């Protein structure tokens, strides 16, 4: 459903979004997969204190997603159950 809320980003994804351009600048001509590998290594090397801002962003984004998901579910009309007999009659089976 294109109107469904977007899922929250993980702490790693916030980190990767912040660092991707810097990694590309430091390594001109680097391939896409290599960027991911370097980002993963940098993420693993971070201390808990260095990860904290990204964890906080992820927690806020998770809350945003949960709130939007609840609002979306409240507005969305549930689909009614269709029996197998109706599917056969309408040719959708």
TrEMBL record:
Gene Ontology cellular component annotations, sorted alphabetically: nucleus
DNA-binding region(s), residue ranges: 5-73
Domain HMG box: 5-73
InterPro entries: HMG_box_dom, HMG_box_dom_sf, HMGB
Keyword annotations of the record: DNA-binding, Nucleus
GO molecular-function terms, A-Z: DNA binding
Family, as annotated: Belongs to the NHP6 family.
Stated role: DNA-binding protein that induces severe bending of DNA. Required for DNA-binding by the FACT complex, a general chromatin factor that acts to reorganize nucleosomes. The FACT complex is involved in multiple processes that require DNA as a template such as mRNA elongation, DNA replication and DNA repair. Also augments the fidelity of transcription by RNA polymerase III independently of any role in the FACT complex.
Descriptive protein name: Non-histone chromosomal protein 6
The organism of origin for this protein: Diplodia seriata
């Amino acid at each position: 459903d294109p109107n469904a809320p977007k899922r929250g980003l993980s702490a790693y994804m916030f980190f990767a979004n912040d660092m991707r351009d810097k990694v590309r600048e430091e390594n001109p001509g680097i391939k896409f997969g290599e960027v991911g590998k370097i980002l993963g290594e940098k993420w693993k090397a971070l201390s808990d204190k260095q990860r904290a801002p990204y964890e906080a962003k992820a927690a806020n984004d998770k809350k945003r997603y949960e709130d939007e998901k609840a609002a979306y579910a409240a507005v969305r009309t549930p689909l009614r159950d269709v029996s197998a007999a109706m599917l056969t009659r309408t040719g959708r089976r």
